[in-house]
Predict the structure.
Amino acid sequence: MNSHFREFWIRDWQPSDRTVAANLIRSVLHEYRLECEPDGADRDVLTVEESYWAKGGEFWVVEQQQRLVGTAAYYPVARGSNAVEIRKMYLLPEARGQGLGRFLLQNLESAIAQQGYQQIWLETASVLFEAVRLYESSGYQPATGVETQRCDRLYTKLLVSASSLKN
């Protein structure tokens, strides 16, 4: 992924981003009074090579003036049918409210569809009001079966394939 949105640059994560991305996620979680779990739900940001790349997923970072201000990622999961889970979609306060989250979500969905996946899952917490509003306004449907301790909402979305549009 290499893309621009306004003054933001979205690119593939690199090993040199490891600490900065982990600290960014920790900062956003702290802002919403959620616990960071470096040995649990957040271990994947410290092990992107194994947790994302080796599984066929992607992990992106967002820069503004050469400073990391966001992350977004997905990887394949066994849940559902030919599915992925969107993970680590976090933006610092200065990057919010400009349409960047919607742009990232749409680009994630496009990348996921291009890889041939048919279903997206994501978990979030009710206190992440902006995220909940974004997912619900983007066609994500509530589901049951939350697996991450700090999350209390699970959403899913079926992707429309090009072949189903022809019928």
In short: The chain has one domain: 2-166.
